[in-house]
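Example 3.2
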Amino acid sequence: VQLQASGGGLVRAGGSLRLSCTARGGRSFSTYAFGWFRQAPGKERDVVATINWKGDTYYADSLKGRFTISRDSAKNTAYLQMNSLKPEDTAVYYCATDFTLKPSSKSITWAYWGQGTQVTVSS
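Structure, written as C-alpha cells:
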C-alpha cells in the first residue's frame, strides 16, 4: 500500500489549503478508513481528523469548524480542507489508512502512512 499526500505549502494566516491523499496498492480502498495527522517540530504526531468507510468523521476538538475531512472512494482519495489557518497549524501533515471500521485517534494503530506534506502558516 502506498499513500501519496499533496497540497501542502506556504499560506498566510486566515488562508486555506486543501490536502489530498491518494492510496494505491492494487485494491479498492472503499472499505478503508483514512486519517490525517500532523507533527510540529519537537512535538508528537497528533490526530487531525479521521473518516471511516461510511463517511463518519472525527475531529480533534481544537480543529472543529475549521478543518473538514472528506473522501472520494471511487478515486481512493481522502481530502483535508483547512480554513482560517493559524500559525500554530504549521506542521508536517501525514495521511494514513487502515482496514478498520473504527478508526483510532492514536497514530500508532494505523497501518499505512504517506510521506507527509509540509504546511506553513505565516503570521
